[in-house]
Structures are given as C-alpha cells and as structure tokens.
Design goal:
The protein is built from ten helices and 24 strands. Strand 5 and strand 6 form a beta hairpin. 22% of the residues lie in helices and 29% in strands. It is of the alpha/beta class. It has three domains: 177 residues, FAD/NAD(P)-binding domain (3-Layer(bba) Sandwich); 111 residues, FAD/NAD(P)-binding domain, CATH 3.50.50; 65 residues, Enolase-like, domain 1. It is globular, with a radius of gyration of 22 Å. It binds flavin-adenine dinucleotide (FAD). Flavin-adenine dinucleotide binds next to helix 1, helix 8 and strand 20.
Amino acid sequence: MSLAEEGHLLIIGAGLAGYHTARQVRAQGHAGPITILGAEAHPAYDRPALSKAFLCGTTDLCDLYLDDPSDPLDARWVRSDAVTALSTEPLGVQTASGTFYLGDAVVIATGAEARRLSGHAIRSVEDAAALRAAPLAGARVAVIGGGFLALETAATCTTRGAGSVTVIAGEDLPGLRRLGRPVARALHSLHEQHGVRFTGAARALGVTRAPPDPQADQVVTLSDGRGIPADVVISAIGASPATEWLSRSALALDPGTQAVLADDTGFTGIPGVWTAGDCALWSAQRTGLRPVGHWQETVDQAQALAAALLGGSPSPMQEPYLWSDQHHVTIQAAGMLALADEVQVLAGSIEGNDLLVSYLRGGTEIGILGMNRLREVVRWRKSRRIRPAVLAA
Ligand SMILES: Cc1cc2nc3c(=O)[nH]c(=O)nc-3n(C[C@H](O)[C@H](O)[C@H](O)COP(=O)(O)OP(=O)(O)OC[C@H]3O[C@@H](n4cnc5c(N)ncnc54)[C@H](O)[C@@H]3O)c2cc1C
C-alpha cells in the first residue's frame, strides 16, 4: 500500500538514508507531513569525511551537514530522542522521551554502530572528534582492521604526524580476500611508502592496558603471540546494524547481522514499514549482488524506496559504486567485485599508485577498480547497467 498524498511519513534515523529518503519523497511530489526522528543532537551530517578531512582537522562538523540551507528540507526534525520501539497496530513509534508518534508509513533508517574491540572507533562525529583530540603527533598508533575505513584512518594518522602506524589487518595483504591480489599488493605498497607497517595474517585478540612494558600505554595482542605496543589504539573492525530496538518487533531481521530484511524497494513485508541504508538488507544485498555499508548504495536505495513508497516504479539502480581516499590516492570501485572469479590488471603498476583492474566472472567483466583512474571509472559507470544474465552464471 503506497503512502497517500497527505499521509504522514515517519523516518527513524536522521542520517544519510533518512535525509535522502525525505528529499526524494518531496522531490517526487509528496505533500504530506514528514517527521524525522534522530538519536543524535546534531543536524543530519555526512560521515565519509570523519575518517579523512575531519580527522585531519581541515574540515568541521558544520561543513558536513546534509541539508542545504538555501533550500531546506520541508520536514519536522526531532533530535536527541532515540526511538525505542515500533508499533505496527497502530503504525507508529515510541521514543526514549516517552513520546508516541503515529505515521501512515515508517521508514527505518537507523544505520549501524561501530563494533568496538578497544580504544577509539569512528562512526559518529563524537568518535572522530575524540580521536582528532588525541595526541597523535609522535604517537605509536595501532589500527585494528583491514577495510577501507581502517586504511583511511591509518593514512590520516600519518598525515597527523604519528610516530608510527601499524595496521593489524588479519590477512597477508590488506583487502586480499575482498579485492584480490593486485589491488591488495598496491594498497600495501601505497601505505608502506608512507611508513605504515602491517602485521600480516595475525589477528588482534585483545588489548592490554598498562602492560608490564613501562614504555607502552597499551599492547595489542596478536594471534601469533606478538604484542604491538601502542599509545593510541583504533578499532575499525566493521559495524553492526542499529536494530536492537527492533528485536521485539514483528519485523524479520537477518539472523546473522540483525539487519532489517526487505525486498529490492525497501519494503519489509509489514504494511507501511520500509527500510534503507546500513541498517537494512535488501534482497539483492542478501544474495551478494549489491554491497552493504556504502554511501552511494544508501543514496540509491533512498531514491528507489521513495518511488515505491509513493506508488511509482523505481528506475533500475546503477552499478554499485564506492570510493576511498588514502594518502592522496583516490580508489574507486564499481560493479559486483564480490562475485568475481578472476582479476586482471588492465593498466598502471602495483608500486605506482596508479592502477586499473578488471573483475571478471566466467570471462565477462562485472566490475572495475581504479587507483587515481577517475576518468576510466566514470566512463565504465556511465556505460553500464545491471545485467542479471551475467550474475546468474
Ligand atoms: C567514518 C566513515 C567513513 C566512511 N567513508 C565512506 C567512503 O569513503 N565511501 C563510502 O562509500 N562510504 C563511506 N562510509 C559509509 C557511509 O557513510 C554509510 O554507508 C552511510 O552513512 C549510511 O547511512 P545511514 O543513514 O544508513 O546510516 P548513518 O549515517 O549511520 O545514520 C543513521 C542515523 O540513525 C540514528 N539512529 C540510530 N539508532 C536510532 C534510534 N533508535 N532512533 C533514532 N535515531 C537512531 C543514528 O544516530 C544516525 O544518526 C563511511 C562511514 C563512516 C562511518
């Protein structure tokens, strides 16, 4: 059932998915009231810069606000009031302050929470501000995690003058399992050129505070018995959907991740309840056809959800796309890298921080990754649409 023209839309979560859903719903002609309920005290903000320019100190929170002051979103924002329960009969939500909001449709867009092993994490602006305020200059920094967030954070710590940066990625080369050997070698080389060290396949088991070594504040214990002394420890080991508040609801949650399950328009199967962004797992994400936890995926989902919510047919989503900035190298990937069975270097060199790599499945190209290859990746994205026949192979 689509949202009636004057229907009240309740959006839970004032982040990227919540904001863009509201924007799209308005752009697609909805005239009824929109209420966006957020747990955070700030206006909705964009997160990618938190591990890059914000952590570096070259940008501030007000530069990250999502809403456009010259064309503000026509919606009611409620801040600092986390939603604690969903009601399906009547449709609405309860917040921590005890307020009950009724809606004609509810969009769940509560994002994800950083998994924390120890030390700093980076998910919210408070997390990033705490790390920004830490005395990084000259410090021994240990970064736990081998994904783009970990690598970006490691790169930013070198820019901030850290004495040493050690990345505990848990695999021989960072990104080896997800991106294949050529890219993993190139990432390793890029970071080593800037003094970042890697511990190889050993995994971080835990962090000991005030260890026997008086020279170290903390020691990260590795699975091979080594200990990495550190003044600052950063955990970048992934994020879990922020859905604990839904555990007693009628919604179906993914048993592994606890993400809200939905079809490929964001509909959860419960009348009037939709979901998008990092808290959601759409059908195509469940089968590995689309990535989880990326900016462009969230924005594309918001657009598709808005169309379906208003009774239209969403246009096909573009090829998945993500980017990362590390040591002045922009890494961009498009397509379904996770499904590739072969990786080929098309151009550039592993050591040159300038690489173009093709991802193939059954001999057909299904994805591309470029390091400082803006033009090629843009061209590839423009010429592509999803090709289900390839994916079925
Ligand atoms: C540091 C960092 C760097 C990133 N860099 C990149 C990048 O370079 N490239 C890329 O493609 N992607 C990047 N991403 C990923 C991208 O930012 C996310 O995919 C995107 O923010 C997801 O949007 P979202 O709205 O689902 O979640 P969020 O942005 O997390 O927003 C969810 C909001 O819901 C609120 N909320 C949670 N629970 C409740 C509740 N119970 N009641 C009310 N409100 C609630 C949260 O407080 C939050 O404000 C990065 C993410 C981080 C954290």
